[in-house]
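Can't attach files on this board, so I'm pasting raw text. These are the components:
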Amino acid sequence: MSAIVLQMLCVAGLLGSAVLAIILSRSKIATAIIYSVTLVASAAALIGSIHWLLGDTANVNHLTVPIGLPWLGAHFRLDALASFFLIVVNFGGASASLYGLGYGHHEEAPQRVLPFFPAFLAGMNLVVLADDAFSYLLCWEFMSLVSWALVMAHHREAGNAKAGYVYLVMASFGTLALLLAFGLLAGPGGDYGFAAIRTAQHTPYVATLVLILMLLGAGSKAGLVPLHVWLPLAHPAAPSHVSALMSGVMTKVAIYGFIRVVFDLLGQPSWWASAIVLSLGGITAAMGILYAMMEKDLKRLLAYSTIENVGVIFASLGLASAFQANGLKLLAALAFAAALFHVLNHSFFKSLLFFGAGAVLTATGERDMEKLGGLIHRMPLTSFVVLVGCVAISALPPFNGFVSEWLMFQAVLQSPELPQWALKITVPAVGALLALAAALAAACFVKAYGVAFLGRPRSLAAETAEEVDRYSLSAMFILAALCLLAGILPGLVIDALSPITLQILGGRMPLQINEPWLSIAPIAESRSSYNGLLVMLFFTVSASSAVVFIHRFASRALRRGPAWGCGFSDPTPAAQYSGGSFAQPIRRVFGTLVFHARDHVEMPAPGDIRPARLRIELHDLIWEGMYEPIAGVVGFSADKLNRLQFLTIRRYLSLVFATLVTLLLVLAIWS
Amino acid sequence: MLLVLLLAPLLTGFVRKMKARLVRRQGASVFQPYRDLLRLLRKEVVLADNASWLFRVTPYVTFAAIWVAAALVPTFATGLLFNWTADLIAIVALLGSARFFLALAGMDVGTSFGGIGSSREVMIAALAEPAMLLFVFCMALVAGSTQLSTVANFMASSYVGLRVSLGMAMIALIMVALAENARIPVDNPATHLELTMVHEAMVLEYSGRHLAMIEFGSFLKLLLYISLIACVFLPWKIAVFGTGPLSYTIGAAAYLVKLAAAGFFLALFETATAKMRVFRVPQFLGAALMLGLLGTLLLFVSKGF
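---
Top answer:
Structure tokens for the assembled complex are below.
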């Protein structure tokens, strides 16, 4: 059985379980059955795609399914790029299913989630496998719609209806852009197969337009600033394991679409197009993490951090295409591998963190950080794995987030090789933005973890929280272990990525497995190298020797007492540092510019016993400056056009006649 | 690895002694930090009631991370055994790991002092880290490597000369080093019970052996930054790997002289300047960031600068 048939069977299994979920919707055991089936199907697809990527990737699999348009059929194809993204999708699917086995039992209305969950997984698989524009768009729309249904699963909660609405509007806009992009790619001949598009010659004009449309279409799905507005609304609205899939996996499917079209189908990019992608990526990264820093809702913070990571990935992709445009294949492969590595890493730690947020939600019913605190005592295991996720996402060694950022900085450092002046100046500026984003990410996750898990509980719910179930914990532990493994053995991952860079760019990074002690050296050891394994080893040895030495030869005595706090312990937990106060220094440094942030202090007059109040004023300038005017214009014109609904039949007829005449006139003048 | 461990408290003791002498005080002995550490190690730990395991693990984690980072910086000779383990970016990130855990520990007990320290520390770090990375970019463009041994060998060779970009990078690095080590004008290492403190507020709840580990970590960090400045900008007489024991001896002597000189200038600078307000720090570090960026841009424009 060829690999693609296995993948399609798994997809069929997922679709079948969606149908099964509808049949079983009244049953009590539906949750267990459906998540078990999706777990098995995703795991099988995952193993299949890993096996294929590590095996014979030259032998590209094709499959034509006679559905869809009768003369066209639906084409599917499994190549190295697709298999990598299948790994990301199915790994996310498998871990979310495992998590769902436990988490799903807390769902109040499981029939609102269960049928859509497998269908969502199937949709993402199909987008990655699609090999013609028609089936690609169909699967893309299917994925969007099903995920919309999942966003609306808790439609009665405040804000979720708006989230669903904004998501729907942005998703339709994105698909429109993709539709136009594929229309341009297919040209007047109208051959929508990817194979034909790949071989066709595209004029620079068309290539530019397609790139911009792809940035709009795939970028809006991935969350590029300023098209990101739906993402922090929609991702947190869904149940947590679905949020993990949307943030960790669906954004990656959008990135897959961008890579497939811009790198694979479009052929040689032009250098200034890469400058656009690069700067958009840098701006997205910095903006996303600043938004996250201001956020106090745990899941929204994670969603904003997804925007940051998508920015990082797009910046690497922009760098890769800049090198590619100048024929520097090795460096292009380095930047591209950094992007793919970060795709994988982000799917690991973002899923982990969303699962953690879901566990907190299960245990306390709270998403607002300002009502949490002290969970490390009540939920020790969850706190431990979430800590791993926070360290990994903050790009700190020895975890995986650091490795991909390190590779990316290595690629940035190679940019003096580029001949174009604009790129020479853009690249270091973007490098500085990315460094800023990395440092702010660390600050942001200190805040998230410190406020939610450390300190004293700020509410009764946080005080009485209980550890979550085994399934959720095992899913989180697997992800945490992978974060560490990918961080200490990065060479293996880079080698596994080389067939993809070979396929897309025609170049690859040097083989890493032969480096001594499994270190990684992207270009040459004298230039730069990093060895996660040894760093981890040194770190463990020095930490444990310090512990042993001190406990052996110095004091082991320990006494518990009340907190010192300079002699004045705060009487209530509400006096602790909260998320808002933690973010205050950064808000003052960056927020006054980016968010027009103002602090208003209302101090009652002496003698007045009202409490003083601090009000923080933040403006989302993108929403207020871009989306509100557009929504205003649409609303205004809809109001005006509303009158057309109440005309008499004579007026309708004359309208039709006038339209006809105008169209004919246009035609006459045109030709 | 052991060398840095032995030297670090001495350096801090020397800086303190110099500061005292500059204001015409007698000052404690240069060996006082060793005594402080030993005393702290022998004392019992008083742990706040609601301190978690994270609070108890953090001193060792930060100490180990800083120690590993410090051991990876060439002191008097290049070509250490495992110097290819991590390059300059990884060293910066290791220090970042140490700070990440320390900031978390500051929030663990749930007092306002810990929170204020952590939030200011991460604000300073959020600006200092990019400035540091731009310095790394600058060095990498000049020396063609982020590997510290290679950089030091290159800088010690004769074809570097004076460069505008390197001057900017050096000023940026010194500014970052002042901020990272919580020195005046960013933070005051001698202050306690003052609302302006940053680092000391964060570690306020620590006592006994835990405090000793944290103090030791900060001594090591000071040594690390001075070694870094010395090996990159003052690489004279640094022993190149494989040369005879004589050059190693000369290298070690030169290293001690460099440390002493750097410690003296640090003390002089700290005595001569006042601490700035917390919200002036972003401007200070922003200047470092801009200097780093300017140096990097100059290098992108031409390798000649």
